[in-house]
Design a protein that fits this description.
Helix content: under 10%
Number of domains: 1
Radius of gyration: 19 Å
Largest sheet: 4 strands, antiparallel
CATH topology: Neuraminidase
Order of helices and strands: HEEEEEEEEEHEEEEHEEHEEEEE
Number of helices: 4
Number of strands: 20
Length: 324
């Protein structure tokens, strides 16, 4: 890794620990490369038992897939199977995230190409219903729109990957709620992302670089976990390419009870993946509860169809403390 970037990241981790206090205990149980067809899997949602809905942002069959994940007692993943819901849906919507709504038994999928959040049946067909997106949220930067979608107890949550063009404050995201009852927008809140680890001038020279909010998940108590991810792939020789890395940061916020102008954040965990296990995490959902009562959290990587051998279809399992 570039020494300047590494020093920036280390200083950020130290300042974050001092500013945010003692982080809740998070155990990194496993990062596993899944034996599934290479793809661009961008979102994941628990449906029932060991079945998870997954969206593929470039799939031509509508983009809806299902993974069956069999978990072992320690929280690691054993066997995995995968299949696509072939409903003949139109591709090209750049589906980025998915949630399961138990009240309706349907899925809602966030699409970045047209800033829509549409309802789908479990066989992959559009129902015709969709969330009513405010004009302010629709006016996003190209390829920096809806990446994150979360749902629980009658409320949807979303935000754009990058701040909206109209927002003048640095790294400030509009965190928007929607009601299941009428699919209309509710209150919105302000969330400020962290300063990137890669300096702007170096990011501009990279072969691939992206930084922003790529996923959110609602905990059982209503608090939100927000995933900020940064991907850096330098341009140049094989040696320089080997310095590629991703930085994943998970923060906890409480919009329903936080009265601050900008939501207060608690750092849950942050970690790097490097050339040998490079993982661009874009999907996140709750997994099973372990025998000791801890809630697991699943992170799913978008490999960009294998990333020319640089990355793969990774899933990472975390276990949260009893009351993070």
């Amino acid at each position: 890794m570039n020494p300047r970037i590494l020093l920036t990241a280390l200083l950020w981790s130290l300042s974050a620990a001092l500013a945010l206090g003692q982080a809740p205990a998070v155990e990194h149980i496993q990062q596993r490369r899944l034996d599934v067809p290479a793809g661009q899997y961008s979102g994941i949602a628990h449906v029932s038992e060991d079945v998870y809905a997954v969206v593929h942002d470039k799939s031509q069959g509508g983009g809806l897939h299902f993974f069956t994940l069999h978990f072992l007692e320690d929280g690691s993943i054993g066997t995995v199977t995968a299949f696509e819901a072939d409903a003949g849906g139109a591709g090209g919507k750049d589906n980025e995230d998915v949630v399961y709504v138990p009240e309706t038994g349907t899925l809602f999928v966030a699409a970045e190409s047209d800033q829509s959040i549409r309802e789908y049946t479990l066989d992959g067909r559009e129902s015709g219903r969709k969330l009513r997106i405010p004009a302010a949220l629709a006016a996003c930067r190209a390829n920096a729109g809806f990446e994150a979608l979360a749902y629980r107890d009658g409320l949807f949550w979303t935000t754009t990957e990058a701040p909206l063009p109209a927002e003048k404050r640095p790294r400030m995201h509009r965190l928007q709620s929607f009601r299941l009852s009428d699919l209309q927008a509710g209150k919105h809140y302000w969330y400020q992302a962290q300063e990137p680890a890669v300096p702007e001038d170096q990011a501009g020279r990279a072969q691939a670089y992206v930084s922003g909010i790529s996923a959110m998940t609602v905990l059982p108590d209503g608090r939100l976990v927000v995933l900020e991810r940064e991907v850096y792939v330098p341009r140049g020789s094989i040696w320089e390419m080997m310095q590629a890395f991703t930085l994943t940061r998970l923060f906890l916020v409480d919009p329903l009870h936080d009265k601050s102008e900008v939501l207060e954040k608690t750092l849950l965990t942050s970690f790097y993946t490097s050339f040998l296990n490079l993982a661009n995490f874009e999907g996140m959902c709750l997994g099973p509860v372990l025998a000791d009562g801890r809630q697991t959290l699943l992170l799913l990587a978008d490999s960009q169809d294998g990333g020319k051998g640089l990355t793969g279809e990774y899933i990472r399992v975390l276990a949260l403390a009893d009351n993070p």
